[in-house]
Design goal:
Chains A, B: Belongs to the ROK (NagC/XylR) family. Two copies of one chain form a homodimer. The first copy, chain A, has 387 residues and is of the alpha/beta class. The first copy, chain A, is 42% helix and 21% strand. A five-stranded mixed beta sheet of chain A has the order 6-5-4-7-10, sandwiched between helices. In chain A, strands 13-12-11-14-15 form a five-stranded mixed beta sheet, sandwiched between helices. A three-stranded antiparallel beta sheet of chain A has the order 1-3-2. In chain A, helix 1 packs across helix 3, helix 8 runs antiparallel to helix 10 and helix 10 packs across helix 11.
């Protein structure tokens, strides 16, 4: 056998330690060393060395020894110490800021939320600081222990530089160096990402294939996730709100995109009022329009069909180019349920070759925050298990 | 230090051998063992063992020893033996079949081409066999040595099963098990891929980022390549020919997609004839329409602008969703040059947030074949260097 090079040995050791850590993480409760030998296929001395290293660095914790049934030495058991590297997630919107802390196992330790009462970036940054403080306190985690901070915000984000390039819904937001502001308190990496992209990551968690995850409320955005990884492209992938429907007048520019101006929640209510009829004249919001359609109201069904057709025409070209396995819709409009989904499906069948599966997200709340925590955890784990 | 497990040792050995092979491949000409020690950071005994293994398996070849300038032992030099694993590529079209053989370094050893004179799959398979035979003979490679066969064909292809699912331009084609037919002669893996996808791989070679590579002639297709890898999605990514332009009548169905029926090369000529005028009345093909536009003929410029607008409107939604770094156009229509490209760029600027770079491919001929050879080589190398 060849002489071994120190560099090769170090690599092998990191591979082994990572394998042991991954085995403990994926196990169901505390595990004994004997089990780890079985799970990893490594020798007992290698497992012992890796466990010692991981106990030293705090990633594993040791449990009270279980007396051996054979009367021998009590067996050492270890489990993941979720608090070794907790992560902080933030969902920064024009009206609310939500913060959450999760441990390494993905368990949410705390979630706090505060309204944004005044315009201006000074106030917004103060709200961010306050809600962060509260979440850390509630989770009993100090800023110095946080392993990664991930922030979701509307607008176009330069993920690499962590800058908000364009965010018409939060005036002044693109002039702030958010990463610099947070780095003053945290010693870890700080990531910024478009909120629809983070929602897409949350929706795509545990799914393979290509996914178009749509956020549909007042605003309309999407994220593309390919085999669990966010597709960013040149920087602004998923901006479906800016698709221009045929015949749309591009001059009514108010910062919103043409498609969200045409079929966002607000536009759906306006369409219904314009259509008129007993049920629609009094419809206060999109939810009531969908409820009327579900009850069989012909005018409401017609509005839903027009909204579905406009949506299907807007996404059909991307279905042909990207060929997603599924389109998953989250956000307020997702509460419309089957009446909207069926209509979109019918139009997509007409407009594409093989229409993708069409689903409503079952993530009720905090989708952006869940995505932010997901992104942070993915990075922390990827870094820790990288070999 | 921990006892080493045999499995870990085997992994380490494969990593080392792969590192040595990659270093030889990327070197400029034959290399000495001393150079390989420097290039890989491995010890001399490890390099020696890897080189012996690679000489045995035929992937490396040994060169005449160079006498050492210090009067010591002559230094052994090795280089890649490109013929250790040659690959075969095929471009199967309705009118022509082209075959090519490349060596491991990507050098094309032979390219042959034959017309398809009669309809029917029996004749087409006979042409495929004949052109393959000729290419192998010209390259002096036996079928048994071929490491991978990759075939490009129009239509929708199930890449995993290697079946053509839908190919209206070659009647009967989807009923043939092409992989089975070729496996009878070759002992290696046989891959089938959509021709526009292979052309995209060829165009994307050596480029990072997200690329939408458009093939634009009588037919209109595209391939999506993300960081050098073909994006397949659920199976039929890149089918831009089937995007339906606004106002298009879906009933004129002849197997071609709505967009290719509207702005394919044939449709461009028809549009020009309908527009009329001194230059356009006699335009024999799309090339003459573009030439007239380049000369400033107003009617021709108007036709080009309409074609460019229809193309831009069709791809704009995918630009917003996929955010490609570049759109590269190949095929007959690419010869139109700046007059078309400028018009498309103008419309895309209006329809998207940050328009991607827009380019014409500089691959003149054999784009699909080049892509087929590329795909085959990528797989052979990936398999060989996998650790």
């Amino acid at each position: 056998m060849a002489e071994r090079h120190p560099q090769g040995t170090r690599v092998l050791r990191r591979i082994n330690t990572a394998a042991v850590l991954a085995a403990v993480r994926d196990a169901d409760g505390p595990v004994r060393l004997t089990e780890l030998v079985e799970l990893t296929g490594l020798t007992r001395p290698t497992v012992t060395q890796a466990v010692e290293e991981l106990l030293d660095s705090g990633w594993l914790q040791q449990h009270a020894a279980e007396p051996s049934s054979l009367g021998g030495r009590p067996a050492v058991r270890v489990s993941l110490n979720g608090r070794a590297a907790p992560v902080l997630g933030l969902d920064v919107g024009p009206h609310t800021v939500t913060a959450g802390v999760a441990d390494l196992a993905g368990e949410q330790l705390a979630v706090t939320r505060k309204p944004v009462r005044r315009k201006g970036t000074t106030h917004l940054l103060a709200v961010i600081d306050a809600v962060t403080e509260e979440a850390l306190a509630a989770a009993d985690v100090t800023a110095g222990r946080v392993a990664m901070v991930a922030i979701g915000t509307p607008g176009i984000v330069d993920g690499e530089k962590g800058r908000v390039l364009f965010a018409p819904s939060i005036p002044g937001w693109s002039s702030i160096d958010l990463v610099d502001h947070l780095r003053a308190r945290f010693r870890c990496a700080v990531g910024v990402e478009n909120d629809a992209n983070l929602a897409a990551l949350a929706v795509a968690h545990g799914r393979d294939g290509t996914l178009l995850a749509v956020q549909w409320g007042e605003r309309l955005g999407a994220g593309v996730v390919i085999d669990g990884r966010l597709h960013r492209g040149a920087g602004e992938a998923g901006e479906i709100g800016f698709i221009r429907p045929p015949g749309h007048n591009p001059r009514d520019d108010d910062g919103r995109g043409p498609l969200e101006r045409t079929i966002g929640a607000e536009a759906i209510t306006a369409l219904a009022r314009a259509a008129g009829g007993a049920r629609l004249d009094t419809a206060a919001d999109a939810a009531e329009v969908f409820a009327a359609a579900a009850d069989g109201d012909p005018a409401a069904l017609d509005v839903v069909d027009r909204v579905a057709r406009t949506f299907a025409e807007a996404v059909a070209p991307s279905v042909l180019v990207l060929s997603p396995h599924a389109i998953v819709i989250s956000g307020g409009v997702a509460r419309a349920g089957a009446v909207l989904l069926d209509a979109i499906r019918r139009h997509l069948e007409d407009l594409t070759l093989t229409p993708p599966a069409l689903e409503l997200s079952d993530l009720a709340e905090h989708t952006v925050l869940t995505g932010a925590l997901r992104m942070a955890l993915d990075r922390v784990w990827r870094q820790r298990l990288a070999t």
